[in-house]
Structures
1.
Amino acid sequence: MKKITFSLSVLIFFVNSCTSEKYISIASHPNTVISESIIGAGVQWSAYPHADSDNAEWGHLMTPKKWNKVFERLDYMKPNIIRVMDQASWRYFVGVEEEGTPIIDFNTQEVKSLYKVLDYCENNNITVVFGEWGAPGLWGVEGEIHKADDPRWINMITKYLKHLIIDKKYTCLKYYNLVNEPDGYWASTDGDWDQWKRGVLMLTESLKENGLWGKIQVAGPDTVQGYENPKSKYLNGEAWLYESTEQLNDILTCYDIHSYPSGKIVRSGEFSNLYRPLVKEADQFGFPFILGELGLKYKGDLGEKNKALGKADPYAGEDDSNMFVYDFFYGIDVVDALIQSLNVGIDGIIVWDLDDAMHTVGDKGEKTKLKRWGMWNILGTEICNNPDDENIRPWFYPWSLMSRYFPEGTKIIKTDEVKVEGLRIVTGLKDDHISIAIINNSTTNQKIEYVIEGSEKRMKFKKYIYSDMLRPVDENDFPVPVEEDIGFFITIPKKIEVPANSFVLLTSFNH
């Protein structure tokens, strides 16, 4: 496919401020820092447990060609952080001795498939949050290892990490999640704080005893914001975070929580208000605060439409799919949440998720119950008999731009609060480069007059736009700028027209 070009008459444009039209005046302030050095945006990426080996439910469908296509797309995105959640029985836990001692094997096809993910992260200096979904007994694996504080599981995890970090020399593994969403009824802990805490303490001690502490450390609580489990001694996912800062502040070196807001909360701007106090709580210890998972779950009419679309798709697990990943507007919503996250000081944002082919509902490998959340389905031909399902979906466009042009180490500076519904801006600085991201989720075209306080240096920018009618791509379906080599003094106000329901990014980075 040829690169798409458009007349300048349909593009947002930069001109000197010299007219009497009413524009919204907005400034960013480099001397007021929100985050000194972010981790950045990334994705959840699993090693295809249903298609990673000869013994997998679907067979060994992840061929070198398939892997390379995924790698090429990630090369464009340049993710800064990856969350890789796994399961012992998917990789290295192969049974138990008569007395119940686990049998582990790090020379399996499944472990070698995981190496492909970790090799990519290592070679590209990507921070990895690693972990296991839960105790192996939750999946009916023999051995009766059901608890997070079972010494056998802690010993297995330690040996696995020792293999990956010491033997394989993966330095990308920075943080470990012990049990995904431990506050949930679906978790192996089922909301049992005390069990989870004991497991975290046991794992920490084991890592220290084996010379791994400092090479990898524990992130938590990894709970779900807003979710309440009546079995839990603490009210909700936020309460688990506060208890973690109170009870485990000498253990946890990264605080994380999961976020699945409604479209209404994001579009109204209330999303940022949910996380501002949580960031403040975590910041007092000087450790990163991340969203370990981010995705939107719609309510009302959109929620009903999503259910109907999932039911109509013979391959979607309708109980856990977001069918709007095929629609343009999801890219606006999810990047709106990302921009709000950066503006309240969240250091890393991991979106759920990369690829439909990674997971099924309950992870039983049922082809008719894919978790439709991905940027594509790399096995669309093999699983769904639909090659088009392997294509890049719209929301890859803005998310990849934010990941690519707000890289790790970027300083997020304060931007004036915008008193216009649906309009938000975030500005990042790194190595004498600037990125400016703007969301307009309203149905009204907006005009702003924007300036960055600071030096009079003249810089050259390129400009991207993501809208329903205009989002140019190259032959790989990767975003291309609508304008390049836009030169201007950053301290002289510039007029920017931002169309309704659009995302605009201007950056001086030149990858």
2.
Amino acid sequence: MKTSDIAALLLLGALWGASFLFMRMGADEFGGMALAGMRAIGAALCSAPLLLSRQRRIEMRTHWRPIAIVGLANSALPFILFSYAARSLPAGVSAISDAIAPLLVAMSGWMFLGEKLDATRASGLVIGLTGVVWLVAGTVGFSHDGGSLGWAMAACVGANVCYTFGAHFSQRMLRDLTPLSVATGSQLAAAIVLLPLTVWMWPATTPGAASWLAALGLAALCTSLAYVLFYGLMARVGASRSMAVMYMIPVFGVLWGLLFLHEPVTVAMAGGCVVILFGVALTTGMLRFRAAPTLNEAAAEQG
């Protein structure tokens, strides 16, 4: 990877990690539904210049149904679920939970789509899911408010289930479309769906300036700009290398929560993060163990 691509990858990880900080900052005053709607609507407005491309407009008109489904699965529903979770969970915990998406993609592909898992990937799946249990138990089990935290963790898992469905669906139904067409169309679909719900659930008290800045950061930086960076990276370095950003989101999410919200880094957070990322590295093939040589191979090397 070029230096510019590495810089773009780091920036993308920082932006997506910051999304949990911004949701934590704005969720209380906006409410989960209104904040999710502002994120989708703002991102659609920021992405409007991309509609100037005639090819993108044609692709969106021709494939609007599957693009709308991706908009629901990858944007509208996860935005709502993560915004709801942000009212109870620290930003760092929500960010760590986002790392389970590759695990769910691999597991669902094996269970429902007939994709094969070798021993290394299967081990990574077990290790990663163990880390999830560790994180959930450490976050919920030792809190006086375990009920609401439990629902918040369930919302994070639900958001990642949505991402998993969106990944498989877009891979099968939209693989021939240009990535920016899918990104722009899906944000537009999410905005259309969430607009009436945002109006209906708008808070009675006008949110303060900090909450508005958080909503703007979510829409413009963590969604619109981040998707442009992500799809540009995929075009230059490929999907597998671009997915390395999943390892950076928890790190940046915990860092921003520590720096700006003074959230403590607990043993459960640190341990769960390490175990989950190790499992993700094995499951996605980023980390491989070299098989021990057979007797014949060892003899050949010595000879």
3.
Amino acid sequence: MKLGKLLLHAGLLLGVMAMAMPLLWMALTSVKTFAESMQAPPTILPAAWQFANYGKVLQKTEFLRYFGNTLFVTVVKTAGQLLFCSLAAFAFATMRFPWKNSLFLLVLSVMMLPHQLALLPTFILMKQLGWLNTYQALIVPGLASGFGIFLLRQFFLSLPIEIGEAAKMDGASYPRIYWSLYLSLSKPGLISLSIFVIIASWNDFLNPLILTSSDKMRVLSLGVASFVGEFATDYPLMMAAACISVMPLILMFILLQRYFIQGIALTGVKS
């Protein structure tokens, strides 16, 4: 038994090291000189810690604007998903209407399609609406998702059905039941969905790349990629930019990791 636990912990330790090494290498490269970052064989620790690289990132690009764009888009998309996905999930979990199961299967089928498949139709639609290179193009297509509807529906189904029935007997309408009961009892599920949406929106690269073209509409992912030059890449500055962009997500995960794990578990709740 002790040997099994020892092997288990050794395996977990190796997994943690494998996951942490890219982040550690990114952080160490961000404080190296350009010459050190290009050495072969590579050095692990820098000879002189170049923390000024972080200041250069802010000087050479409008990185604060990229950060603001990313924050704005992420907040609005998260709020939209919480609203629209919870409304749809409430309907699928509590109401009876024709073709209910078929419509839910249609929602689930959207989750099976690769995201890249929707890029061209989304681009054409945004162009026809005149929304290219605007916040609408970055936000509107992500205001709802099949995964969000599925996740919240599973959570709503885990709530006692007697709650809604008792509210109906007291004369409460569906909007009142949704707002006062289901949302107030579903904070863990809503937080879990928020975490998933924030991570996906914060790290989104393809949509901003295709739907925007001006520097003022860039988000953090495009800002990091802008350090890739035609003939050379300034890896220390690129890694410094990557550290700045990933730090909010790391802090969020540290503070809300139990909700993140709970959100994964929610997908297995009764159907």
